[in-house]
Prior knowledge:
4% of the residues lie in helices and 45% in strands.
Amino acid sequence: MSFSLKSMAGLCALLLCGVTHAEPTACERFKQQYAKQYAEIHCVDKDTAVVRNQQDEYAVVDNQNRLLVPFGTYPVIMAYNTFSHNGKLLLNVVAKGKKLGVINRNGKTVVPMQYDDIQMPRQADEPIIVTQDSEDSWRYGLTDQTGKILLEPRYYRINPFSEGLAAYSTDPIIKYGEKNPHARYGYLDTQGKTVIAPQFANAHEFSADVAWAQHPDNGDWLLIDRTGKTLMRLPYAYQNVDNFDTSNLAIAKKNHLFGLINKRGESVLAAEYDWVYWQNKEQFYLLQKDDKFGAANAQGKAVIAPEFDVPTDWDWNKEQTPQGQTAFVRGITVYLFDQNGKQIDQRPARYATQCAHVAIGLPHKSRVGYRVNKVFTDRNYVRFINAEEHWTDGQCSDVAAPHKKGRTHKKRRS
């Protein structure tokens, strides 16, 4: 199965990995206007929303609140796993028999309601991946965006397409309830034709006409081109490696720690961090070590030591940080750095006053046994953990005030 070291959505949502926010679209304004009319509103493109009413029925409406697909037509209309491009909108729906299909904006069936899973394309020239449950395993196939079958569901795996190719396997991925070590991956094109025959133990997505694939015998990672030719080999000590980015560097996992390599396979940033992520449109690499954060610049040089509590946005109102800069919180202060790691400014955290009393290890006000494990004073966020390593989220107001030792008075000698 393809694996990306960047797939850290939950953590990036908390750590603000370079996300910026544009002006609200027509659909988002609609969402604000009709929030009380519907139980749920989800924008699926700039002019269309999937809505759910109080009776738990789904419909599709435009930004004028006109019904495109009436309530109750389908038990579920999914607001995720959709596809929108140049006015074309494809929606994944669940029919009455719990089978999945695809409709367009006006409710016309594009893919019949006969599949157990559907994965929408990410690009205009990609097919739809459809899945049917068979006796021994799920089988994957392809249809084009008009619903024409390109490949009957027969493969045991088809991963998402990238640059016109997708990793696939003709072998069962799961065998007798366990991962099948003999499963082999190859690549097929958008018409379902094999381009690289199944031969790898693992296979990643293509990026800039190259992809990482794992040798089936010794576990080495191979950088291959679109014909399957090996361009570079990384030794088995690397457990995983991501695609190269715009700086021609790749995040690599070696001996269970993360670093950066270049296209010659040379180490640029030593693999000594618990995690490495892209940050602020790939102008920085976020470094995490011992639950503290720092950064490397776009060339892979560590310029900010991992000694901060958490990264944040410098401009809180716009939820962004200027290009070529990065910001971190330590305690109740936010620090701004340039690409060379030089501090250029600082400000109080947004909730500095409310969180001034918070410290690691302080107890929760009401949840016995839970103590502060992490605090994010720019977002009024506190994570508590107990002895069993169960955790719960809260705010600074949930933290008990530190105990103040009373003053002792010596008896006056008479």
